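Notes, p. 3: input format for complexes.
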Amino acid sequence: MMALIDDARAKVNLTLRVVGRRVDGYHDLESVVAFADCADRLSLTPAPRLHLTTTGPLAQACGEAADNLVFKAAQLLGEHVGNLKLGDFTLEKILPVASGIGGGSADAAAALRLLAQLNGLAIDDARLIEVARSTGADVPVCLGSRGCVMTGIGETLLPLNLPKMPCVMVNPRVPVATKDVFNALGLRNGELLVGAADVMDAPGWPDDGASLEDWVEALSAGSNDLEAPAMRIQPMIGEVLAALSATDGAWLARMSGSGATCFALYENTAEAQRASQKIQQAHPQWWVHAGVLS
Ligand SMILES: C[C@](O)(CO)[C@H](O)COP(=O)(O)OP(=O)(O)OC[C@H]1O[C@@H](n2ccc(N)nc2=O)[C@H](O)[C@@H]1O
Ligand SMILES: Nc1ncnc2c1ncn2[C@@H]1O[C@H](COP(=O)(O)OP(=O)(O)OP(=O)(O)O)[C@@H](O)[C@H]1O
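Output follows (294 residues plus CDM):
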């Protein structure tokens, strides 16, 4: 049988509000999530045993194969589904690691989609969703890889019809650990930041079919609550945001997830291309991607 192939698209948190900290230490969030047109690529060749080879420019950065989230997700699914057909995965690692765009989560989700395809499981099979949740907070949203409002710690997903959003994504190639950023918020276990009434009163997001301008206006009123703690841990995030904000036509510049990747939105792809060239010239060592979020 030929190899099955899937893209593991980068996730971008267009907004991220921290609602509070649960008693188990995880944080409840509300986040508008979009997906980018840059991705890792995962292939699966059916074989009797689970195996992973990592290739591509960032293969070294993502650590030992045994610790890879692709491996973890596949092993967990094997524990939930009897006689699961497995195989040889090859991961072409392109996305920066520990960068707030959910690369590892996207890879794990792609692994689950490929195993679902190989084993004839539906993508909304409860076991697949359960394994996605156990693999990491960002894995459920990456399973569908479509725009949505994500709440809880990442398990509740409300699909959104986002317009195509021309963007530039920039990572300064310094890793930032998600756990450290959440801890730097300094919330106690069980501490609530936003009362239930505030959540009920919060303005909704634009309706289906809303324009790019409507969305940019709504997103601009939001924020990423992890930006300040992440900047304390890695001040270079401030430089990335300044570089994006200084480009012609940048409508909104913000950090994604727990950083350090930041993005800016533009009216059209030509403007985004010009902005990305300007930033790449000034910072040849940074990872810069011009594309479209949707
Ligand atoms: C910041 C986001 O990227 C936003 O999409 C995600 O919430 C992070 O998702 P993730 O990287 O898949 O997170 P996990 O691998 O499950 O957790 C890493 C660490 O982040 C913290 N964590 C994660 C998610 C969450 N809602 N609250 C948390 O406090 C926990 O300390 C956890 O030990
Ligand atoms: N397939 C993978 N790709 C990248 N990192 C992986 C992978 N599997 C395990 N890891 C480990 O997970 C850690 C987090 O990597 P990842 O790139 O997913 O972070 P992130 O982009 O900050 O994610 P998020 O936005 O979900 O917080 C890395 O330090 C790495 O050691």
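The longest strand covers residues 27-46.
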